[in-house]
Design a protein that fits this description.
It is built from seven helices and ten strands. By secondary structure, it is α+β, with helices and mostly antiparallel strands. The protein has a domain of 139 residues: Beta Barrel (OB fold (Dihydrolipoamide Acetyltransferase, E2P)), CATH 2.40.50. The strands form three sheets. Strands 3-4-5-8-7 form a five-stranded mixed β-barrel. Helix 6 packs parallel to helix 7. The radius of gyration is 39 Å and the shape is elongated.
C-alpha cells in the first residue's frame, strides 16, 4: 500500500501544477475582439481630427490678408521727423540739451480736421432714405451684386463709368474691378438713390458709401472710372467732373495711357 500512496500524491501534485499553468495561460491570452473595436474607434477619431485640421488649413491658404492696412512701423516712418522750432536737441560735445530755432512766437493751435463726409465730396448726395446691404459679388468697376433684406440686386453706381470688364476687357478694366473689390467686397454698405430707382436693365441706381468713403467719387478720384452725367440723376455731377479733371491732369489710373 505504501508505493500506491506515493504514486497518488505525486499524481495530484502534477495535476495541480498542470491546472495552474493552463489557467495562467487562459488569463494572459489576448482577446481577439477588443483590439479590433479599439482600433476602429481610434481610426474614426483620428480621421475626424484630420478632417478638421485640413479644413482649417484650407481656410488659412485661401485667406488673403489685406495689403492696404499700414503697420505701426509704417505709420511711425511716415511721421514728419523735421525738428520743431524751439525743441531741444542733444549736443554731442557737451552731452547737454541745446535749443534750436528759438522764437518768441507762440505755436499755432492745432487745426481741426475737416469731416470726411465734406472733404470727400459726399455732401452732394441727396438726403433720400438710405438702404443698407452686403456686397456679394463684384461685376466690374462700377457694378456690384448686393443683398438687401434677404434679396439679391444688381447695383450700378450713379455718375461714374468704369472700363468694361465682362465682355470686352477694356484698358484698365481689371484694375478698376480689383479696386472696387478692395473697397466694398463682402462689406456692409449704404446705398442712396438720386431721382431714378433703376436703369433700363433693371439695375438699382445708387450712390454707395462705406463708412465715410464715397465709393463712386473715390473711383473717379483715383482714375479707375470716368465721370458720367446721367440726368436726372445728376446731384453729384460737379464733384465727379472736378475729380476727373484732377485725375486726368495727374495722369492717374486709366488716364496714364
Amino acid at each position: 500500500m505504501k508505493p500506491y500512496r506515493i504514486f497518488t500524491l505525486r499524481s495530484w501534485k502534477m495535476l495541480s501544477i498542470l491546472l495552474l499553468v493552463l489557467c495562467f495561460g487562459c488569463s494572459s491570452a489576448p482577446s481577439s475582439k477588443a483590439p479590433t473595436s479599439d482600433a476602429a474607434a481610434i481610426f474614426t477619431m483620428a480621421a475626424q481630427t484630420a478632417s478638421v485640421r485640413l479644413t482649417m488649413t484650407q481656410k488659412v491658404i485661401t485667406y488673403v490678408p489685406p495689403t492696404d492696412v499700414p503697420t505701426v512701423q509704417e505709420d511711425f516712418d511716415s511721421m514728419d521727423q523735421t525738428p520743431v522750432p524751439g525743441a531741444e536737441t542733444p549736443n554731442p560735445a557737451t552731452g547737454t540739451q541745446a535749443q534750436t530755432g528759438i522764437t518768441d512766437t507762440p505755436a499755432a493751435p492745432a487745426t481741426t480736421p475737416t469731416p470726411a463726409a465734406v472733404s470727400n465730396g459726399a455732401a452732394c448726395i441727396p438726403a433720400n432714405p438710405p438702404q443698407t446691404g452686403k456686397v456679394l459679388d463684384i461685376i466690374d468697376g462700377d457694378t456690384i451684386k448686393v443683398m438687401i433684406d434677404g434679396k439679391t440686386y444688381t447695383v450700378r453706381y450713379i455718375g461714374v463709368d468704369a472700363p468694361e470688364y465682362v465682355k470686352t476687357k477694356e484698358f484698365y478694366a481689371a484694375e478698376a474691378r480689383q479696386e472696387n473689390s478692395k473697397l466694398v467686397f463682402a462689406k456692409d454698405i449704404t446705398l442712396i438713390k438720386d431721382k431714378s430707382d433703376t436703369d433700363p436693365a433693371g439695375r438699382l441706381l445708387r450712390y454707395v458709401k462705406i463708412g465715410e468713403t464715397f465709393v463712386n467719387l473715390e473711383l473717379v478720384t483715383k482714375g479707375f472710372a470716368k465721370a458720367l452725367s446721367s440726368p436726372p440723376d445728376s446731384a453729384c455731377d460737379t464733384s465727379f467732373a472736378s475729380a476727373q479733371d484732377q485725375a486726368s491732369a495727374a495722369k492717374t489710373g486709366l488716364w496714364n495711357k
